[in-house]
Amino acid sequence: MRNRDAFREYVTGSLWVLPGISAVLALVAGFILSRIPIRPGSPLAFRGTADDARTLLSNVTSTVVTVIALVLGLTVVALQLSSTQFSPRLLRSFLRDRPTQVVLSTFVATFAYSAAGLYTVGLSAGGRTEEFPRLAVSGALVLLFASLAMVVYFTDHLAHSIQVDAIGKLVELDTLTVVNGRLGSVEDVDFTPPEWAVPLLAPASGYVQSAYPELLLPLACQHRVHVRLGVWVGDHIVSGTVLAWMWTSARDEPAPDPVIFQRAMMGMVQVGFERTQKQDAALGIRQLVDMACKALSPAVNDPYTAVQAIDHLSVIFCALAVRPLGDDVAADPTGRGVVIVPGRRFGDYLATMCGLLRRYGCAEPTVALALLGLLHKCATVLADDPARWAAVSEQADLILADATRTTAQSADLMPVAAAAAALQRRVALHVAERFPRSE
User: Does 172 map to a domain?
Assistant: First the structure.
């Protein structure tokens, strides 16, 4: 499972895989079409001579090479713009862009198909001949028109894809997929390693991209131990540091050889040189926060873009507010073994988002109001969890405190203070109704 997911993640994030496959398919299609007999007068047959066919293939090949260079140049410009203007963490989203991969695949297929045809059209046994696969040459014309259509489509797609609204929506949808996918859900059980826990060291450095505790559960049941990953998915680890903890039910029980579990851990945990969104919802949140922080920098001064990023974050946090969040636990029904992957709680996600934005943006009242609006939307759908309501209240207090400290005019601060007070009244009313204190 882990290797399959890692392979899929690599394939979808590589610009060369789909074009490479399309080139091979184009060569196969050209070979098949060149073997199909067709009458010279058929409407599917190329009507020119062998020299005309070679000239056509040569022109198509040279034209497509020029177009490929143009498309790659525009793609690099888009990557550079998104990296400098929004966030360097958005580059992976552009590399995963399926329309761009399809456009490049069409161009590469056209080039490979036409270039391969130059080896056979009008030539036979080293000499010239008027016999050539007319249907295959017609296929080159079809690919040429398809490439021209792709040029127009790619220009339109690129112009839309670098808009801030499109980028924010793309990150939002990708993050919602992670939120609605595999995230930990066990919140109310304490899996703190005891004093006699044995450390399991990381054999490699990198980012924890995904973890599947069920893959290690059979080994944990065999040795009757608990294993808990020491970092969140998305965290960076260094070779030789503690990756996980292993412990038995009682101090006096003998622990198995940790080397066995250290080797098995790498079958459960995927470590790579970069963060991915496979199981890491915090990465998408970080991307939108980066967009907002860049917009709030003195070199840009674009608070409206920051507000747009917060609007997309509101959708993500409303989705997080209604789902269980916690550790991902694989446990044997008989209690012989347990494997735990720690997960972020709602308050952790909220602190990741609000922390940077309130420090960078609370001097601008519109940003502070947008953050309070996000918290208000979360409060509308928030689950009946005292810790989550406390996190909302805490962040509202911090936003108001930072806005009070950095806003020069009291008239600008008044709407922020009013919004914070309304939110705190709502939190207090809900807590009083749902979580009354016992006398």
Answer: no
For residues 82 and 162, the answer to whether their CB atoms sit within 8 Å is: yes
> What is the token pair recorded at 419?
């919004």
Nearest one of 410, 411, 344, 401 to 371, comparing CA atoms: 401
Q: Is the domain of 128 the same as that of 206?
A: no
For residue 399, the model assigns a pLDDT of 95
Give pLDDT tens digits for 127-140: 555 677 788 888 89
Say which residue, 92 or 387, is predicted with more confidence. 387
Adjacent-strand bridge partners of 208? 271
Number of domains in the chain: 3
CA distance 342 to 437: 30
* pLDDT (0 to 100) of residue 35: 83
Backbone angles phi, psi at 394, to 5 degrees: -65, -45
Is the residue at 180 inside a domain? no
Range of the domain at 424: 346-439
For the residues 80-109, what does the mean pLDDT come to? 83
Bridging pattern class, strands 226-229 and 242-247: antiparallel
Per the domain annotation, does 371 fall within a domain?
A: yes
Domain co-membership, 313 together with 404: no
Instruction: Round the CA-based radius of gyration of the chain to a whole number and report it.
Output: 29
Q: Do both 102 and 194 map to the same domain?
A: no
Long-range contacts of 9-12 (CB under 8 A, 24+ apart): 9/209, 9/276, 9/278, 12/96
Is the domain of 62 the same as that of 155? Answer: yes
pLDDT at 313: 96
Please check whether residues 22 and 95 belong to one and the same domain.
yes
* Residue 220 CB partners (closer than 8 Å, separation 6+): 226, 227, 332, 336, 337, 338, 339
Do residue 26 and residue 112 come from a single domain?
yes
The 3-state DSSP class for residue 210 equals strand
Asked whether residue 126 carries a pLDDT value surpassing 60, the answer given is no
Residue 40: predicted pLDDT: 67
Q: What is the pLDDT of residue 360?
A: 87
Burial class (CB in 10 A: 0-12, 13-18, 19+), 145: exposed
CB contact at 8 A, 325 and 343:
yes
Q: Residue 189 belongs to a domain with what CATH number? A: 3.90.1170.30
What is the spatial distance between Cα 121 and Cα 128, in angstroms, rounded to a whole number? Answer: 9
d(CA 319, CA 322): 6
pTM, 2 dp: 0.85
| Among the listed residues 61, 204, 53, 56, the one whose alpha carbon sits nearest the alpha carbon of residue 130 | 53
